[in-house]
Amino acid sequence: MQSLAKAWRIFARAVTAACLIAVMQITDAGERGAHWPALFGASKAAAEGDPKLSSLLGVRPQSILGSTGAGGIETASDERDLQERAKFAPEFVDVWPNDMPPPPPRVREWRMSWNFRMPEQDEGAANTPAWRRYAAAAPVDDGRPRIVIVLDDLGLNRRNAWRSVALPGPLTLAVMSYAEDAERLVDGIRKAGHEVMLHLPMEPENPLEDPGPNALRVDLPDGEIDRRLSWALARFDGYVGVNNHMGSRYTADARAMRSVLREVRARDLLFLDSLTSGSSRGATLARSMGIPHARRDVFIDHELSPSAIARQLNRLEAVARARGHAIGIGHPHSMTLDMLAAWLPGLEARGFVLAPVSAVVDIPESDLAGAETEPNVASLSAAQP
Questions:
Q1: pTM of the predicted model, to two decimals?
Q2: d(C-alpha 105, C-alpha 86), whole Å
Q3: Nearest-angstrom CA–CA distance, 137 and 116
Q4: Mind listing the pLDDT tens digit for each residue in 282-291?
Q5: pLDDT at 139
Q6: Across residues 32-55, what is the average pLDDT?
Q7: Sequential DSSP letters for 39-67
Q8: Where are the beta strands (DSSP E) in the chain?
């Protein structure tokens, strides 16, 4: 009987420990409903250069982030290591949080490996639109297909937000309007050579889904929409434009979207339609109002598994080859970041160039600027993916 009781206690402790590890992993990744075995395996596989994971992406096995610690981030073993890394990324010394592992030394190498074309970035130039003034440096358009990677929801999971900043770029990172310590995060994003978007919460079709505080909702009076919009737009500076968080119901409502896009136009920003709904009027209205705009082509991590993400990245490459550029939207899940860390360094060798969203926006004809009439929606619906 005693041996049976002892065996039961050992079993109970093992189950408890496994549950605690699972909860910590899920909490850290910021992912709900993920497949646990795949979630546990992906971070370790990417960090160690697992050939199976690498083969999904079509890249050679390698440890993308070098000597890795927990979650695939490099960790500083001593003061000399920190000093050595600071030589590669000195711009991070003042902005990088002390409790975060330092950025990998290849950050600066990644930035310098591109043939950059600096856009109009004189922040004091009154005549430069904000979407150009704050644009990230874009590689010269040399005819290669351009791929844009947008990561939404930044700032909700602090650790993974800074992991996103440490990825090679230029990426486009959409910071949530209600993110904590957003100004510091935006400063780090821009110093890393990435581009910043304001991620604006909007009403979804499913009333059980919560887009977050101060979300824009269709049934709000115009005055309240304006108040919430002004609050969001004033949360931080340095962003090139706005894209929607959720918003499948809100973006389908022309009246509601005009309220947003008038403010976007007044501030000389661009608009990226995340296309959370095929009924979205966002990009169509932006075009009619003379606003620089773009549409999402591929959701990278709608299904959270290594094979599904690899499939979507391959699809993104196919769209870019066919059309000249493609925009993929993902999120700072641990698994997504692991997959991107393995996939991004090989883009150039596969014939692509990474670009910020400002480099691929559709800029309407000048004679459309200020127009309030919508074009024929039916004629444009085929352009939506």
A1: 0.73
A2: 8
A3: 6
A4: 899 999 999 9
A5: 86
A6: 39
A7: HHHHHHHHHHT-HHHHHHHT-----TTSS
A8: 116-117, 138-139, 146-154, 172-176, 195-202, 241-246, 270-273, 293-295, 298-299, 325-330, 353-354
Place of tokens 């993400």: 309
120-145 pLDDT, tens per residue? 445 555 678 999 999 999 888 899 99
Cα(110)–Cα(132) distance, rounded to whole angstroms?
Answer: 22
Residue 266 has, within 13 A of its CA and on its CB side, a CA count of: 9
Residues 6 or more apart whose Cβ sits within 8 Å of residue 17: none
Judge contact between 171 and 331, C-beta under 8 A: no
Q: With H, G, I as helix, E, B as strand and everything else as coil, classify residue 220.
A: coil
Contacts of 147 (CB under 8 A, 6+ apart): 316, 317, 320, 325, 326, 328, 347, 352, 353, 354, 355
Which DSSP letter does residue 104 get?
Answer: P
Coil/strand/helix, residue 318: helix
User: According to the model, what pLDDT value does residue 97 have?
Assistant: 78
- Please list, in sequence order, all residues whose beta carbon lies within 8 angstroms of the beta carbon of residue 84, skipping any fewer than 6 positions away: 105
**Burial of residue 267, with CB atoms counted within 10 A of its CB: 0-12 exposed, 13-18 middle, 19 or more buried:** middle
Return d(Cα 343, Cα 361) in angstroms, integer.
24
Distance CA 359, CA 325 (A): 10
- How far apart are the C-alpha atoms of 70 and 73, rounded to whole Å? 6
- Residue 63 CA to residue 10 CA, distance in Å, equals 36
- Pairing mode, strands 241-246 and 270-273: parallel
pLDDT grade, residue 20 (50/70/90)? very low
